[in-house]
Specification:
By secondary structure, the protein is α+β, with helices and mostly antiparallel strands. The protein folds into three domains: 181 residues, 3-Layer(aba) Sandwich (Rossmann fold); 82 residues, Immunoglobulins (Immunoglobulin-like); 86 residues, Sandwich (Immunoglobulin-like), CATH 2.60.40. The strands form five sheets. It has a six-stranded mixed beta sheet, sandwiched between helices. Helix 2 runs antiparallel to helix 3, helix 2 packs across helix 8 and helix 4 runs parallel beside helix 5. The longest helix has 23 residues. The radius of gyration is 28 Å and the shape is globular. The N and C termini lie far apart (120 Å). Homodimer or homomultimer; disulfide-linked. Interacts with HSPG2. It holds the Pfam family fn3. Keywords: Basement membrane, Disulfide bond, Extracellular matrix, Glycoprotein, Phosphoprotein, Repeat, Secreted, Signal. One of its GO terms (cellular component) is basement membrane.
Length: 431
């Protein structure tokens, strides 16, 4: 009887521990969320680049916890018309997603990223595509840096809905535009990587995706002068309680606003707030099943931007066009020459600013180039290193236009040993 008694005690202890862990909520639980890959499949990408990006996505998926109760993945192609390779509900394991990515064929056509972003929005929030309500949403956009249609407005719509946006550019494109399109901070969500070096960011990007899918506490994002969005981990369920969300200016705690939300909610957006103001936020879980501590956060709204003065038609400034093309030449182990096609519009640039820094991290440097010149030589570089070079044109209006490109220095050249001078008379005739 003793063995059966010991077994019964062990099982009872295991059940008690499991029940206790479920009530407390385990921080090590697998993250839940919907992950959508937006893949540039247009004719601007070579077949070789497409195959390397496809290989990179497979390696990335291999490091993510995909499956029922964890992450779900979908893939949308950027082409003349967006094409959904597979919805969230189609593949239930990481291995199946990897096989589907390997089988994805390049679509060719134009680079209509804006249209593809609209399709991505449908996929991320449509239950018919397998999207799950109330779970974090992450978009990973892999691009060669260009688009045939506007990207900013549809991308901002996604971020306003709480989507975390990561961008992987293979070294071309406008740094300023891509930084604005990625979630903040850009240094964490935007990667410029050569197509042959994509593997170096796999571990970092996978960890960032998991972190975005599993927020550890109440946090704010998409902060503007009049509002911000809140997100928190799933602390309750729909039938275990509800949340009371409180918001008050730090200087006037007695003027709190309150919002009651269901137990399956994981986010809320506050709007109509005052600019440049500190707000105290409290998330209070109310439950008769278990005790969950409130979470607190202080958020400061951005200063209000001055409304641009509307110029009369006759005062409208001439068109300001930035650099249209960057050319890298005369590459040496420690220097290279950067040239660009100057602005062709009627507004002349006051000058140019060239910023450059190693793609794999390091201090950025800058060179000022006066108006009338469209090239400069970058000195003091490291041999065998990939750099991101950004050329920015500054205009009289105070606005700037920029373009970025990748440049690589070759490995150190072998030192050349000069040939010794031939002895007098060698190889010639004597007197």
């Amino acid at each position: 009887m003793l063995p059966w008694t010991a077994l019964g005690l062990a099982l009872s202890l295991r059940l008690a521990l499991a029940r206790s862990g479920a009530e407390r909520g385990s921080p090590a639980a697998a993250p839940q969320g919907d992950l959508l890959f937006l893949l540039d499949s247009s004719a601007s990408v070579s077949h070789y680049e497409f195959s390397r990006v496809r290989e990179f996505l497979g390696q990335l998926v291999a490091q993510l916890p995909l499956g029922p109760g964890a992450l779900s993945a979908s893939l949308v192609h950027v082409s003349s018309r967006p094409h959904a390779e597979f919805p969230f509900s189609q593949h239930r394991s990481g291995a199946a997603v990897q096989d589907a990515i390997r089988a994805a064929a390049q679509r060719m056509g134009d680079t209509n990223t804006g249209l593809a972003l609209a399709r991505a929005k449908e996929q991320l929030f449509a239950e018919a595509a397998g999207a799950r309500p109330g779970v974090p949403k992450v978009l990973v956009w892999v691009t060669d840096g260009g688009s045939s249609d506007p990207v900013g407005p549809p991308m901002q719509e996604l971020k306003d809905l709480g989507v975390t946006v990561f961008i992987v550019s293979t070294g071309r494109g406008n740094l300023l535009e891509l930084s604005a399109a990625a979630s903040a901070p850009a240094e964490k969500h935007l990667h410029f990587v050569d197509v042959d070096d994509l593997h170096i960011i796999t571990q970092e990007l996978s960890a960032s995706i998991v972190d975005a899918m599993r927020p550890q506490q109440l946090r704010a994002s998409e902060v503007t002068s009049s509002g911000f969005r809140l997100a928190w981990p799933p602390l309750l369920t729909a039938d275990s309680g509800y949340y009371v969300l409180e918001l008050a200016p730090s200087s006037e705690p007695g003027t709190a606003r309150r919002q009651q939300l269901p137990g399956n909610a994981t986010g809320w957006a506050w709007t109509g707030l005052d600019p440049d103001t500190d707000y105290d936020v409290a998330l209070v879980p109310e439950s008769n099943v278990r005790l969950v501590k409130p979470q607190h956060l202080r958020v400061r709204t951005l200063p209000e931007e001055a409304a641009p003065e509307e110029a009369a038609p006759e005062e409208a400034g001439p068109e300001e066009a930035g650099p249209e093309r960057i050319v890298i030449s005369h590459a040496r182990p420690r220097s290279l020459r950067v040239s660009w096609a100057p602005a062709l519009g009627p507004a002349a640039a006051l000058g140019y600013r060239v910023q450059f820094g190693p793609l794999r991290g390091g201090a950025a440097q800058r060179v000022e180039v006066p108006a009338g010149r469209n090239s400069t030589t970058l000195q003091g570089l490291a041999p065998g290193t990939a750099y991101l070079v950004t050329v920015t044109a500054a205009f009289l209006s105070g606005r700037e236009r920029a373009l970025s490109a990748k440049a690589c220095t070759p490995e150190s050249e072998r030192s050349r040993v000069p040939r010794p001078a031939p002895p007098p008379g060698a190889g010639g005739r004597g007197p």
